[in-house]
Write a structure and sequence with these properties.
Chitinase A, domain 3; 4 domains; about 575 residues; seven-stranded antiparallel beta sheet; elongated; 12 helices
Length: about 575
């Protein structure tokens, strides 16, 4: 199957529809044990398993299957046998090339499986039979062994490209639009005339190559897969065809093609920042599944180049070690973010647009000056990395210490004006101590103070970043712990003012002044609030005053128009 859908079982479906009774639905591919016989579908077809097959896949409609079979009547009279002929029988499944009982039964088989099918006349040769060997209304038995099948897929679901797998590929992954694939192909007209051939060509999937069919086909292929494509003209060269190109002959209008295609390999290209401004192309796959996170110390080999090939930085080579801490602004943001997607031993090319590099400014680097608005090309190898300890690997005291460390790191970034980075540190700090049920009373008290401090500082970051709704949430979390926290009331009031929730802001300010009447910051914020209220009242007065003025003017115009109409003489009917 091309698409994997999770269908409910018959019993689940009955439950969802509110039915109490069991549905008596026929099984189209029941589980059968060796020696057991079961009905398939609802037309009387029976299958008895003789030998189990291998794997879990079954052939699909359109696939080319190869079988050995022996056909007999119910009395044991043999009327046909591929084994006697010594040649397996091949046909396309589900295309009406064989009796219906075969089409329905063989699609339930696995490779290497042997089964005995009992096929009623309605699914065999019916009332007419097949003289002279098969009488009318005969029930037939076929011992069938499924030797193999070749998958044939309508990959565009419109009959435009049929793909017949000749050699299965490895693994389960397929190339994506940004990936660079390396293929071999041979394209022929229907009469066998060679049009184009390559023993190796690389292209980006989304850009395509030769004709549209290649890009569409490779997205369905696995590494090492070989396939035969039957391509209709709309996925070849269409109504216009293609003129001669070099040594390659022309393609006539509306021509269909046969293309032998092999997906040799591909390089995975990922959009690190989801805006195509930092792209990472894997040159060599890494090991394992772990990747660095914020705070990880990574050791890398790094070469940075400009578009013209000028090397501006080279580190970690010739026995020299180069390491840096992720998310500490020790390298460009684009490289920082790309490194977080890498595995141990991975080698990659990272292309960083100016927005994630040095932007509109010129930058003096180790080996060269990087001009303003430069796109950077980093060749990087992940030698090793040491991740920060995760909270689930820490005891209570380690969690408290880690939270305190993150708070201090956040404070450093806040003072440097890096509010987004500071916010991440405060959030990470709270994450370490969020669940404190296993803490002692003393540890709970320490965790409580840290939660309050980190959330308050984070709220200050959110105010600087103009994320006022998040600032409100963070202050509310603090007030849930300490309802008389003046800083939380003050900062929430600041956020409410920006969100024009003036009544809520006034409530928080008044409560803060009740707790700390001499707090200068709160008093200043109260003055700002009063000024805002006056400003909004003035704007409201102007707005509604303008509306009333327009309405008054309109009423005067309507009144004047009515008077003019009344002053006009009555029209005289000249025919009276």
């Amino acid at each position: 199957m091309d698409d994997d859908f999770d269908f409910p079982s018959a019993s689940n479906a009955a439950d969802e529809m509110g039915m109490d009774e069991e549905l008596d639905l026929p099984e189209t591919n029941p589980v059968i044990k060796v020696g057991e016989e079961k009905e398939i579908g609802k037309n009387g077809l029976k299958k008895k398993l003789i030998n189990e097959g291998e794997g879990w896949e079954n052939p699909s409609s359109g696939d080319e299957v190869e079988v050995h079979y022996v056909g007999t009547l119910l009395d044991g009279t043999q009327f046909d046998s591929s084994r006697d002929r010594g040649t397996p029988f091949k046909f396309k499944l589900g295309q009406g090339q064989v009796i219906k009982g075969w089409d329905e039964g063989i699609k339930t088989m696995k490779k290497g499986e042997k089964a005995l099918f009992t096929i009623p006349p309605e699914l065999a040769y019916g009332e007419s039979g097949s003289p002279p060997t098969i009488p009318p209304n005969a029930t037939l038995q076929f011992e069938v062994e499924l030797l193999s099948w070749t998958s044939v897929k309508d990959i565009c679901k419109d009959g435009g490209i049929f793909k017949k797998v000749l050699v299965e590929g490895e693994g389960w992954q397929n190339p994506k639009d940004l990936d660079e694939v390396f293929v071999k192909y041979e394209a022929l007209l229907e009469d066998g005339t060679l049009i184009s051939k390559s023993d190796g060509v690389e292209f980006t999937v989304k850009d395509g190559f030769f004709c549209p069919a290649l890009a569409k086909a490779v997205k369905t292929m696995k590494k090492g897969e070989k396939a035969l494509l039957t391509v209709n003209s709309q996925y070849a060269f269409g109504e216009k065809g293609r003129p001669q190109v070099g040594d390659e002959i022309s393609v006539p209008p509306n021509a269909s093609l046969q293309i032998n295609l092999e997906l040799v390999s591909w390089k995975t290209v990922s959009d690190v920042t989801n805006d195509k401004k930092v792209l990472k192309k894997i040159l060599k796959e890494g090991e394992g599944y772990e990747r660095p996170n914020d705070g990880t110390v990574v050791k890398v080999k790094l070469t940075g180049k400009l578009q013209d090939g000028t090397v501006f930085v080279k580190k970690g080579h010739d026995g020299e070690e180069f390491e840096f801490k992720v998310d500490e602004e020790q390298v460009t943001e684009g490289l920082d973010r790309a490194v977080k997607t890498m595995k141990n031993g991975e080698m990659a090319l990272v292309i960083v647009q100016p927005e994630y590099a040095f932007g509109p400014s010129e930058s003096q680097q180790e080996l060269a000056v990087v001009p303003a608005d430069s796109t950077l090309y980093y060749e990087i190898e992940m030698v090793s990395f040491v991740k920060e300890k995760e909270s689930w690997d820490m005891n209570a005291q380690e969690k408290i210490e880690a939270a305190g460390k993150k708070k201090e790191e956040g404070n450093v970034w806040f003072k440097a004006g890096k509010y987004a980075r500071a916010s991440k540190r405060y959030e990470k700090g709270v994450g370490f101590i969020e669940y404190d049920s296993s803490f002692s009373d003393e540890e709970k008290q320490q965790a409580k103070l840290l939660k309050i401090s980190c959330n308050l500082n984070n709220a200050a970051c959110k105010l600087k970043l103009k994320d006022y709704k998040e600032a409100v949430k963070l202050c509310t979390k603090v007030l849930d712990i300490d309802s008389r926290n003046v800083k939380a009331l003050y900062r929430r009031a600041q956020a409410y003012i920006q969100l024009v929730e003036l009544e809520l802001a006034e409530q928080d300010i008044k409560k803060a002044l009740e707790i700390d009447p001499d707090n200068r910051d709160v008093k200043m914020e109260y003055k700002i609030l009063k000024d805002k209220v006056k400003e909004y009242n003035r704007k409201d007065a102007q707005f509604y005053g303008s509306i009333f003025a327009k309405m008054s003017k309109l009423e005067q115009q309507n009144s004047s128009s009515a008077e003019k109409k009344e002053a006009m003489p009555m029209a005289i009917d000249s025919k009276a």
